Amino acid sequence: MERFFNFSAYGTSFKTEFIGGLTTFLSMCYILVANPLILGQAGMDSGAVFTATALAAIIGTLTMGLFANYPLALAPSLGLNSFFTYSVVIGMGVPWETALAGVLVSGLLFLGITAFKIREKIIDAIPESLKYAIASGIGFFVAFIGLKNSGIIVSSPATFVALGNLHDPSTLLAIFGFIISVILILRGFQGGIFYGMVITTVIGIAVGIIEKPTAIVGSIPSLQPTLGVAISHLNSVLNVEMLVVVFTFLFVSFFDASGTLIAVANQAGIMKNNKIPRVSQALVADASASVVGSLLGTSTVTALIESSAGIAAGARTGFSSLVVAGFFFLALFFSPLLSVITAPVTAPALIIVGAMMASQIQKINWQQLHMAIPAFVTIIMMPLTFSVATGIALGFIIYPIIMLALKKQREIHPIMYGLMIVFIVYFAYIS
Questions:
Q1: Does the residue 6 lie in any domain?
Q2: Residue 100 forms part of a structural domain
Q3: pLDDT for residue 347 is more than 70
Q4: How many other C-beta atoms lie within 10 A of the C-beta of residue 261?
Q5: Helices 319-331 and 14-28 meet at what angle, rounded to 10?
């Protein structure tokens, strides 16, 4: 095992990797309750989504660990499942079955461009500041969703958004959960997000805000309501509206996953000279997980930023990913606890994870306005338009325009021109 994962070359050990894997799992296991809750709002069966989430995380994380030897854990992304539910299903009125088929098609395209190393070339062509802007912008978007779901931020006809009713018991519970989770994290408790959710749930049950669970351990929920649904609805993707949805899923998942991979690889000291070794294997593992996840019945699966918690604890190889997958398997038997995980419990996790992702903003070169302005537009437009895709598109349109105006066209990779044209056409259509 030590030779296979090359522990000595990375200055790590079996114990360190195990602790790192456990830390990562504790930091991201909230996805088992948050994902069914969010996709449930799209009309999907929560029990089936729970099982699909766990299985997709197991398969994707195992593939990443064994194939790429990276300390990365994969699971459905909070940003992308929110995009699935709130933008596509609720916002556009697309049935969840059709949206899931769109995820499958985008995943297959994702796998194709990854296999031919097109994705790798695009990643290399994106300026470093814009890479970090994508990662941090998604963080702000996820945090905004958490604030909305908690009731801390509400809509307002006068100011668009406003402070919510802080006397509401559910909102107060979410605020309590946020404070507890932050304290635990700052005090050095590994898995502070997870423990914060547990404490919040217990308090919520004690004061009567959350109903008691009927059981703790139970049978694994059936996948039948979601398994293979994406395949049976592929014909519904063959129209102009869904082609736009597929394209949106593709470039949102593309830049979300790439941004996370860049951020985590940089933290682990893996990225050298703006290059990531074994990037092809990591990207193939990531793209394959999206295809598998859609077939099982969940939104796009990708490498999660919570992997950074395990890396901070010492994880450096794919063995820690195997540990994460093992704990996800054990978690399959605790589905009855889903009934006690409500919006006030998951909202703090969304806000904190958003803060973790937004930390990449410090790596943007704010001293150079020609880089800072496109990065800022990318970041700010994600939460303001409630769309990751829109933020990316606007930033990638503005960047080449600014560079051309400054007569720095030679510093722009030709791929960036191509992306600008694609996004302009995209906006021309949706307008």
A1: no
A2: yes
A3: yes
A4: 28
A5: 40
The per-residue pLDDT for 171 is: 93
Helix (H, G, I), strand (E, B) or coil at 407: coil
Q: What are phi and psi of 153, to 5 degrees?
A: -115, 130
- d(C-alpha 316, C-alpha 269), whole Å: 9
Mean pLDDT of 189-197: 74
Quick check: 170 and 5 in contact, CB under 8 A? no
The pLDDT assigned to 216 comes to 81
Q: Which two tokens stand for residue 289?
A: 């997980």
The Cα–Cα gap between 349 and 351 comes to 5
Tokens of 33: 């309750």
Report, in angstroms and rounded to the nearest whole number, the Rg of the chain calculated over CA atoms: 21
Helix (H, G, I), strand (E, B) or coil at 75: strand
Is 223 within the bounds of a domain? no
Rounded distance between C-alpha atoms, residue 239 and residue 132, angstroms = 34
In the chain, the number of structural domains is 1
Per the CB < 8 A criterion, the answer to whether 144 and 163 are in contact is: no
* Residue 229: both structure tokens together: 């649904």
352, 50 in Cβ contact below 8 A?
A: no
Judged by DSSP in three states, 319 sits in helix
Q: pLDDT at position 431, please?
A: 53
Q: What is the pLDDT of residues 358-371, one digit of tens each?
A: 887 888 889 999 99
Q: What is the per-residue pLDDT across 281-303, written as a single tens digit (0 to 9) for each? A: 888 898 899 999 999 999 989 88
Q: Residue 156: what are its φ and ψ, rounded to 5°?
A: -145, 130
Q: Band the pLDDT of 320: cuts 50, 70, 90.
A: very high
What DSSP character marks residue 30?
T
If you average pLDDT over every residue of the chain, what do you get?
85
Calpha distance 183→177 (Å, rounded): 10
**Would 278 be classed as within a structural domain?**
yes
Angle at 197 between CA 195 and CA 198, to 5 degrees: 65
- The span from the CA of 219 to the CA of 45, in Å, is 16
Residue 275 forms beta bridges with which residues?
Answer: 272
At 323, is the pLDDT very low, low, confident or very high (cuts 50, 70, 90)?
Answer: very high
CA distance to 26, 35, 330, per residue, from 197 (Å): 11, 14, 19
Q: Report whether 60 contacts 249 (CB < 8 A).
A: no
Fill in the amino acid letter for 57: A
SS (H, E, C) 63-114: HHHHHHCCCCCEEECHHHHHHHHHHHHHHHCCCHHHHHHHHHHHHHHHHHHH
Most confident of 76-85, 374-383, 404-413: 374-383
Range of the domain at 291: 11-216+229-430
